[in-house]
Amino acid sequence: MSAKAGPPSTDATTALPDRFRRWFKKRGWRPRSHQLDLIAETKPGGSVLLIAPTGAGKTLAGFLPSLIDLADAPDAHGGVHTLYLSPLKALAVDIARNLEAPITEMELPIAVETRTGDTSQAKRQRQKLHPPQILMTTPEQLALLLASAEAEFLFGNLKRVIVDELHAIAPTKRGDLLALGIARLRRLSPALSIAGLSATVKNPDDLRRWLAPQRIGEELAAVITVPGGARPEIIVHETSEHLPWSGHAARHAIPAIYQAIKEHKLTLVFVNTRFIAEFLFQALWETNDDNLPIALHHGSLDVNQRRKVEAAMAAGRLRAVICTATLDLGIDWGDVDLVVHMGSPKGSSRLLQRIGRANHRMDEPSKAIIVPGNRFEVIECEATRSAAMAGQQDTEPLQAGALDVLAQHVLGMACAAPFEVADLHAEITGAAPYRHLGFEEFTDVVNFVATGGYALKSYDRFARIRQTKDGLWRIANPRAAQQYRMNVGTIVEADMLRVRLTRSRSRRSGLTGPVSRGGRVLGEIEDYFASTLRPGDTFAFGGEILRFETLAENEVLATRSHTQDAKVPSYAGGRMPLTTDVAATVRDMIANPARWTELPGQVREWLEIQRHRSVLPGHDELLVETFPRAGKHWMVCYPFEGRNAHQTLGMLLTRRMERAGLNPLGFVANDYALTIWCLGDIDARIGAGLFSLDELFDEDMLGDDLEEWLLESSLMKRMFRNCAIIAGLIEKRFPGQEKTGRQMTISSDLIYDVLRRHEPDHLLLRAARADAAKGLLDVSRVGSMLARVKGRIVHQPLDRISPLAVPVILEIGREPVHGQARNALLEEASSALVEEAMGSADV
Amino acid sequence: MSDTACPVPAMPGVAARRRAQAVEVLGHELVIDPTGAVWWPSEAMLIVADLHLEKGSSRAARGYLVPPYDTSAALAGLVALRQRYQPKAVLALGDTFHDRRAGERMAPRDADTLASLSQGCDWLWIAGNHDREAPALIRGDWLSEWRCGSLVFRHEPTAAAAPGEIAGHLHPVAKIQVRGRVLRCRCVVTDGSRAVLPAFGAYTGGLNICDAAFEPVMARQLMRLWMLGDEAVYPVGQDMLLPDRSVQSRRKATLASQPQATARKAATKP
């Protein structure tokens, strides 16, 4: 938190009490205008959104009104005066520490405390009896406090709520939970005033609405916008080396990245997946002749390791950190003066956020280098760069609140006090995500909480909440309340396995000997990834190449390997699809040769040959190419809607092609294109009038076909599991908790199968489908794409693969091939394909 | 990870697809149905294991309100099987009811279905560890085990050699990997002299046959198994089997050592 010099403000003297003015002066600071504006906008019952780039003194601005209010009459308020909510508990702790400085220096009699999952039981108890004036906590802890009998005592006099990193939390289920919590806080203390702190977003009105109570009609919070500082300097890395056709590792750029690290004090290297992080760390390690201290930071690494890297960064002991989204949010870790982005950032908001990590001084430009991994990515990086330079944001619009989260909240509210349905409905529709939720649907949620909401009313005697004669719903038994407390929250973690480094097994002792169980823990990997490993497989983890030895209970036992090339672990998670805005710009750049001057020669040439051999996909058209290859018939289409949407589309199209008798054999998608190969001759069928692409791509595939496929999809099952846990249908699994045995728990997949057969429209299936539409399956994007290209499908029959099709067809070669042969195979496949596509013109 | 009948695509190393598969146990021919039931043609007898009726409501009684349709799903399966095979007798291999109060919790409609199922053919009920005593709504014999010729039917497999034993209790499932996809399905397992049948209930999870619990029952290298698909039964080579990774504890280890992530060279920096 900092309040470095800002533009002079004329009314500084009037807004600030003496004590504060003196403090600013003593520090050599001048209050910034947005800090004063926020004081002015803080009114009882009011709400205000502060949008400011990093380094603008946002957090101090958030707290100043509270400090001023409390400075004079610290004891006049019972209970909590100001509640600070952050998505990261580390951030809450850090901000609490930073708040100590002004409080001590101004000798303010204000108690500031944090309450997170790590807070001791004794301290939690004490906080309930003697709450601090300022409490820093997380959405989950707030939910727990609100579900307790002390809620009224704690928050009945609440004056202010501060929500930090609002742009990050509002689009998530945690955001839904928090919005519901705030609606309850408003009920307990109608005069409270709320401030949201956010980075720049595309639709500020979404966040303004999120903050403001939604009573009659739509209300928006006041907004204070701090203009961005100096324009960032963003360069798309150019190379004289051969640009790869596919892949994201950008091996060609490693010497250049190393050079950039050498020339800067501290470089943050953002990558999109943990695999690339591991790969890059290895590659830089091999290049690191100067012994620069370079560290690695990603979500699979042990938490203590990450904390150590962060501390080393803050202390200035590192020259570069290779990181994933784990460093997107939160605390300032050090004096970063360069941000490198490996691969496409996939959206200009994400790029700007990450660039904001460099140079936390508003008046100096932040420096960033984007390094495209392949030819398509060059176009995408250029598109993202130009959007970011123009300050365009592309954050997604907020969606309706999730029903599973609402169910959890309703149970919590019953734990706090008996409620009346219409009354609680009025309260929750005051929260923006639920402002459109009808009374009937809310009644469904209440019935679900009570007895599961099944058509077969057989659970009345097992109800968790019951309606009594006075019409109020009450918690039915103490166990229901206990279950609520055990299962609160919306974060459902994937099953993880610890990775333990053990001593190498001696070769001479034979292969049957037991593997040593000792050794240290390096971090965790997903269960599903571990289940694809076989003894002897190698994988990169924690900056080393490990050899998988065996599984022992919940641990992966691995030894150090001396191979150079690890089997590639593909972490599906964390791979973000490109935003619709970037996708539109990419389409535009390809369709419009006048814009090609922005692109490097290799890419221009590639597009030229595409124009010559096939056609360029138009801006609002869908290009579909068909060609024979290796005894099969291929179809490639270019929707540019991201891998998730394309995989969904691929599933739906192959179903239809199967019905049309085309015998599809498989499909592969990347962020730009989708290819399906089949035995049937598509061109011949179209020529004979037996098959039509317009019909194939008709929007009606989103009806029954989608429904049928969704129901069988394993992704849908995963989403159902999350919804079932959040809504309290099955237990959350806890760290350290032993599995209760196969007789006790029921797998969510079995529940899913039974439920969809008997009650396909059940609340939880609706919740899971809603998640599917916006989440991993990206159905909504498939839908808008199909609508956009309706009547604009351009079919281009070819006699061979087109240049534009090369990257997506190369994805087929990325199926795992074990051992050293992999690269050779890929290379072989790649050069043969390129020759086929480009003829003698290039390569 | 699914324990349900899963659609099994063409699997390498898997014989041609057929709806039901005949196996021999101690010279008796038994036919495995994709539902997990076993048909014994020579006795015109249908054998099912571990129905765990009212398991759903037992969770509901503990506050987790899972859909109350598991009993009707299992009973509907039995109705279909009776129509298909027209058995003279049905044998339930134990743990037919999830607990002692399952009968009381059963919805009247399901109780009616169960009653009509017991009409028109003989029923043999073997007691299981979940249902040592017969619930009130059951007619027919409640036995601890039943012998017929060289075969013996009991709930829990004997943890030693037991030729001719047909048992349930362990809920066997097998896990294999095909083209990068992991399939986990219920299965029937036999070594030619005895067999363990999968659970028939809709909410019954499974135990991987690589689990230590199967070791005293049959030797791994003698195991032959049939995985249950939606509409067919697939013999699978035991060399394809994968163990489960049950994640029991996620406790983070506290570390004292230097983070490897800061690179070995960081430690030796000038």
From TrEMBL, chain A:
Residues 39-219 form the Helicase ATP-binding domain. GO terms for molecular function: ATP binding; ATP hydrolysis activity; DNA binding; helicase activity; ligase activity. Belongs to the Lhr helicase family. Lhr-Core subfamily. Residues 253-404 form the Helicase C-terminal domain. InterPro entries: ATP-dep_Helicase, DEAD/DEAH_box_helicase_dom, DEXH_lig_assoc, Helicase_ATP-bd, Helicase_C-like, Lhr-like, Lhr-like_DEAD/DEAH_assoc, Lhr_WH_dom. It comes from Agaricicola taiwanensis. Keywords: ATP-binding, DNA damage, DNA repair, DNA-binding, Helicase, Hydrolase, Isomerase, Ligase, Nucleotide-binding. This is DNA ligase-associated DEXH box helicase. GO terms for biological process: DNA repair. PANTHER family: ATP-DEPENDENT HELICASE LHR-RELATED-RELATED, LARGE ATP-DEPENDENT HELICASE-RELATED PROTEIN. SUPFAM superfamilies: P-loop containing nucleoside triphosphate hydrolases. NCBIfam families: DEXH_lig_assoc (TIGR04121).
Automatic annotation (TrEMBL), chain B:
Residues 247-270 are annotated as: Disordered. It comes from the Bacteria. One of its GO terms (molecular function) is hydrolase activity. InterPro entries: Calcineurin-like_PHP (IPR004843), Metallo-depent_PP-like (IPR029052), PdeM-like (IPR026336). Residues 46-161 form the Calcineurin-like phosphoesterase domain. This is Metallophosphatase.
